[in-house]
Design a protein that fits this description.
Blueprint (H helix, E strand, L loop, with lengths): L16 E4 L3 E6 L4 E13 L2 E11 L12
Antiparallel strand pairs: 1-3, 2-3, 3-4
Length: 71
């Protein structure tokens, strides 16, 4: 649940929403030495338009929290 900022007279409120774009799989992971990585763009939706904030990277193997210890 998101909370709304408290309005104070004389202050501007900037509303920004962070969205995640479509993931791109098949990226090379240097730790696993396999194509198990993925990348996704982080998009900021503002009243003035959409901007790309950056790109987040991960790996299906290295970042797996369900598979127990790696090693």
């Amino acid at each position: 649940m998101t909370s709304r900022p408290e309005y104070r007279p004389g202050t501007a409120v900037l509303v920004v929403r962070l969205e995640v774009g479509n993931p791109r799989g098949g990226q090379w992971c240097p730790a696993c030495k396999a194509y198990t990585g993925f990348a996704v763009d982080l998009l900021v939706l503002q009243t003035s338009g959409v901007r790309v904030l950056g790109t987040a990277h991960g790996c299906e193997i290295c970042d797996d929290t369900d598979g127990g210890e790696r090693g």
